[in-house]
Amino acid sequence: MELLCPAGNLASLKSAIKAGADAIYLGLKDDTNARSFAGLNFTPAKLAEAARFTHAHGRKIFLTLNTFPKPGEEHRWYQAVDLAAEAQVDALIVADMSLLDYAHHKYPDMPLHLSVQASATNAKALEFYKQTFNIERAVLPRVLSMKQVRDLAKEHIVDLEVFAFGSLCIMAEGRCHLSSWVTGESPNTGGSCSPAKHVRWQESGDARFTRLNNVLIDKSNLNDQMGYPVVCKGRYCTASQNQADFLLESPTSLNTLSLLPELYQAGVVSLKIEGRQRSPAYVEQVTRIWRQAIDSFMNNPSQFAVRREWNAMLAKVSEGQITTLGAYERSWQ
Asked: Which fold has domain 2-168+252-329?
């Protein structure tokens, strides 16, 4: 199984490769990708440098173009496809059908991966994208159970990639507009659920108040471990409950180490680590642990066991220092 790791800058990319990543995914320094934060991502020159470095080490590099073009500005997304071809990336990760069409016809030899933002969750959807745009791989949304992943893999339509570790999304990716109700900016076109310009933290006594576009979405203790503020992970009161609580989703991270044998047996080809917005230290640590785990499993599948120290280290870099199997452990489907 391929270990696919994130890079928000060259330092993270080099850390991932040094720690054992098989492939790297990254985005351009604009809103063509869904991690459009100031100080992150790659200029065209840095993309070319990243591609040269990655290929020199025998690894692969994928460019993420997973937002949807804004009306009248489509040319910027098309230009990003051209840049990817010029840099000789190994694949494009795309959600929008017009971009898939453009890339498929202009660069027919460039591998296309269907982004999780396309929210393709069934065989008919995958068949459509395969027949229409000749995609080679699909990134499955994090709302699917293990049974659903296995059922899709049995169809052998395209290669399947799943998120293995990192921040969770409880929504059907690509279809969520929850944060736009607060910020007025859609994450599907703007590149971020919570644009940094809208985020405010205020400390008072031993409390920290988190606001998004002046809307209070959380109150926590100063020592609480908190993730990046997004609407779905805020704490709220209801008409029947005056005590604020996590009503939609609590800050936690996905960790599927224990599912390695099942994912392998299902035929999943790529395990994706979330975190292009995280530090090089995070990327190095998570990559190193997953490299050890995958190698341990592949060397002796029947005797594979998750080491306690692996989970302990991963928990330290997780949101809220808590991990979960997410939708994979749903038993009711």
From this structure: TIM Barrel (3.20.20)
